Hints:
Layout: H1 10-31, H2 33-36, H3 43-66, H4 72-89, H5 93-106, H6 110-125, H7 130-147, H8 154-178, H9 183-189, H10 192-225, H11 231-238, H12 240-243, H13 246-257, H14 262-270, H15 279-303, H16 307-315, H17 320-348, H18 352-357
Amino acid sequence: MRKTPGSEWHFPLLAGLILAHVLLVPILLEKVPAMDGNLHYDWATGIVLFCANAFFAYCGVVYRRRVNWFSWPVYLSGYFLLFFIVFAISGRVLLFSMVVFLYAGLFHRPWSLGYLIIFVVSVLAVSAYWITCFILGSYLLYIIRSILPQLSNRFESALLGAGFLLLFLILFPLINLLFQYQPQTLLEAVSPQMKGALSVSLATAGVSTLIILVFGVPIAWCMARKDFSAKSSIDALIDLPIIVPQTAAGIAILVLLGPKTPLGEFFSSTFGISFAGTQLGIIACQIFVSSPFLIRSAIHAFENVNAKLENTSRSLGATPAQTFFRVSLPLAAPGIFNGCILTFSRAISEAGSIMIVAYRPSAIPI
């Protein structure tokens, strides 16, 4: 039977790793007293480490046969570097075993090794925040990998680094908070009052988003497709709720829809509804503060729709309503959906105006 190229490495390499596993670990435990307190080595750990070494040897043989650029010196150098950093210095035997499995399995994909390096550095250097650092570091590597062919000079690289530094400062506390507690711990800590406030916020934010969607998309289409004299003033008024302070918005809504106002008395006497201290007041506040996000996103979405498609639809006999619902709206749907997410997030986080108009029933921000 003809031998497969590279098969002569199989048994010598595997035997060498087994010998290193059997001899080197006891020698380290005896010769380096400082490691004795860090290393927790028993027969189960030895089996795991042995399996990791065997898998490393097997992957080396496979790469020797199938990967043209494979180099044994480079492959072994990475192993011993990990051994020195994770095993000898940090004394984490099980972590070293897991890293060896990952290193051997990902060696044929160099970019994947970058994620492994970020993982090792995060676990060893910043143990308290290793999940957050690993996520952000992996995201940075993903950005570098996607944009690297387009970076032609150091200045562009500096711009990318400065931008990601700001993104890092913004995302770090949020991701750290996300992984700070387990879901079971949060559920146990949530009181019945908090659950009630959460249901109020989810319900009112959902209704507010739906109302803004129904009435905001039409005006967004008009702003994107029509030119008229009042367009610039309407465009400025759309962003007005963002500029107005939350407390001022609450006072304005209360003065308009309060129980002693003409409009408030009209709704109370005619429909039997009240805005102050009810979920309707919360919805009114949420609509006021969050409407610009959906309308502005819808405007940009309709502007990105090619007007020639709408003209073609009209020339084929479709009515304006058919063109809007079958051509314009489906093509702009992704941008509108993004606006719905922004609007819902802004609505569910509103606190300042709700504290004035409807402190009870309490929403989550209250």
